[in-house]
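FORM 12-B: Structure-to-Sequence Request
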């Protein structure tokens, strides 16, 4: 099973951020008598028990060019505060959430309710609604206009993530928690930009001091962004998956760049990190396959750049590289950090200088053009999935300084034909060589005491295995 780095990142994002069963906007999946919420909960049809009903005033059809467009038939659930929207029937293009239903206020939109509703173009949320659930409109790829009333006090994480057509985001003037400016939704008290869209202009009046987690997540139509000098932090996955983003200027006011902040920004070519930045999260620029220049302002007290690598000065950890990086050989690099070169698909060869002691998790994962790697004797550990899915890697020599091979370290290296495990290794992690389809033989030395589950799983060409006499533990399906 061949997996690419980008698929891995997508899987992580979807699993971690938008947990729920995939639900298409399909009339057949939400018919009466068997309506399903995206989370998979079975809801009764019209008139069913449990307080879940469809409204009676949404039965009209509208013909456009001979095609019948059925308005959303919203499904409600009675709560202590009133009613919550928990689902819909039909193929909605425009959704207007009512203020009341059966004499009670409509106060919330549930988690994932409209997720994957690709026909939806416009949503109006009334003043009665106080909360919008997690991922409520995620993956609504045709959604262009959202109007939010003055009663909303809670917008769930990733509520509008992956809405690539979103042009207009407005919040009613009377809202005391959020306001909108430049097609951005901003949490007023914290000055956090929580949702943006492809036409966003971040306000420069000081009303935004942080870009929130996932604020522009997979806004793949966003081509450029100007971050004002009032912003001090860029959150987790803030611009993740913005595949059309070609340039970004990070101002001197920013002190932290979160994990995965720009991961998968495949059109980004150049980034300069200012002297104010004191924290760069893991995978901040991973998968930026066009990134050629990565520099740090020379006055930065925490990081410096050499050969288009960003290095934490005090620890010597190389935290981020790019496609044409040359790792410095002056002894300044002591470790290759987690995901430092993940998704650098143009990287063909790497020489790790002597003095480096460890390769972090996912350090070179998804470098599918990498044909050779030189690991020096100073390295003692290979992190989990360090070379995951390096499809062009044909052979690797692990030095006799290495004591452990991390889980999935060479998993899905489909061209790997040979590997020498030295006598220094005591453990081979789970999935370490799983799906290495071209691996024909392996000799495990006496020093190894444990072989993890599925360590050599699905190595279809493996015909010769020699296991040393030191092995006391072999995991489930280690050689299946």
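FORM 12-B RESPONSE
SEQUENCE OUT:
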């Amino acid at each position: 099973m061949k997996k690419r780095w980008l698929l891995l990142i997508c899987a992580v994002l979807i699993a971690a951020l938008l947990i729920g069963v995939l639900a298409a906007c399909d009339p057949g999946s939400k018919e009466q008598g068997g309506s399903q919420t995206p989370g998979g909960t079975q809801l009764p049809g019209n008139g069913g028990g449990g307080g879940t009903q469809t409204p009676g005033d949404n039965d009209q059809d509208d013909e456009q060019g001979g095609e019948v467009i059925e308005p959303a038939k919203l499904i409600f659930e009675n709560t202590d505060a009133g009613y919550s929207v928990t689902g819909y029937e039909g193929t909605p293009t425009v959704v207007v959430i009512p203020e009341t239903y059966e004499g009670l206020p409509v106060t919330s939109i549930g988690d994932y309710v409209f997720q994957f509703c690709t026909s939806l173009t416009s949503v109006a949320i009334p003043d009665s609604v106080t909360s919008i659930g997690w991922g409520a409109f995620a993956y609504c790829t045709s959604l262009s206009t959202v109007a939010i009333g003055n009663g909303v006090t809670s917008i769930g994480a990733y509520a509008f993530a992956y809405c690539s057509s979103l042009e207009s985001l407005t919040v009613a003037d009377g809202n005391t928690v959020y306001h909108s400016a430049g097609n951005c939704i901003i949490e007023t008290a914290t000055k956090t930009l929580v949702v943006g869209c492809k036409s966003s202009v971040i306000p420069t009046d000081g009303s935004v001091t942080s870009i929130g987690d996932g604020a522009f997540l997979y806004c793949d139509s966003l081509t450029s962004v100007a971050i004002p000098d009032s912003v001090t932090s860029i959150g987790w996955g803030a611009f993740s998956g913005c595949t059309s983003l070609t340039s970004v200027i990070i101002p001197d006011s920013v002190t932290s760049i979160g994990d995965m902040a720009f991961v998968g920004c495949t059109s980004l070519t150049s980034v300069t990190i200012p002297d104010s930045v004191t924290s760069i999260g893991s995978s901040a620029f991973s998968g930026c396959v066009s990134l050629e220049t990565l520099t740090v302002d020379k006055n930065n007290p925490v990081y410096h750049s050499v050969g288009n690598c960003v290095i934490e000065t005090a620890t010597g950890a190389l935290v981020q590289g790019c496609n044409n990086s040359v790792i410095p050989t002056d002894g300044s690099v002591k470790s290759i950090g987690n995901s430092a070169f993940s998704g650098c698909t143009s990287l063909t060869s790497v020489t790790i200088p002597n003095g480096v002691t460890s390769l972090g998790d996912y350090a070179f994962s998804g470098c599918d053009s990498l044909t050779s790697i030189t690991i020096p004797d100073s390295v003692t550990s290979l992190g989990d999935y360090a070379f995951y899915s390096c499809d062009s890697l044909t052979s690797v020599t692990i030095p006799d300084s290495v004591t452990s091979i991390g889980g999935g370290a060479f998993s899905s290296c489909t061209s790997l034909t040979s590997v020498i495990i030295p006598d220094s290794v005591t453990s081979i992690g789970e999935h370490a060589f799983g799906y290495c389809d071209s691996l024909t033989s392996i000799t495990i030395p006496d020093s190894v005491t444990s072989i993890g589950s599925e360590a050599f799983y699905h190595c279809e060409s493996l015909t010769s295995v020699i296991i040393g006499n030191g092995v006391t533990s072999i995991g489930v399906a280690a050689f299946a």
